[in-house]
Amino acid sequence: xxxxxxxxxxxxxxxxxxxxxxxxxxxxxxxxxxxxxxxxxxxxxxxxxxxxxxxxxxxxxxxxxxxxxxxxxxxxxxxxxxxxxxxxxxxxxxxxxxxxxxxxxxxxxxxxxxxxxxxxxxxxxxxxxxxxxxxxxxxxxxxxxxxxxxxxxxxxxxxxxxxxxx
Length: 166
What we know:
This protein is 69% helix and 0% strand. The chain has 166 residues and is an all-alpha fold.
């Protein structure tokens, strides 16, 4: 594949990357920055791409950049990565949409990433396992837990209790 074709293929993935970045960050400006950094990093490291799913490789880069960003934020006390005023007004049923957004935001990062990659971006379990660098069983477990927690957040009520095994 020529360098120009590679750049065109990477650029074609920008809308998908932006949707995932926006779901992760809930901030339009930050999502745009993440996508720009992802595209720039992919193009500058074209020699590291070994074929396969370009989309999965780009999601891996974006996910790692977001994790690095969150680690840097955690190292700085007193910073708040979410500002409600900068998040757009949801269309449709605002209350239901807000419950889903809060439920997704409350998930642990690993579960949120898996849920967004599968449900929002339509990646296969195998592709998500590649992006997350974990076994497929771990992807399935994280997705199951994320869906259960999201169901509880939307429907309300107590969190499901795990059965004790002796």
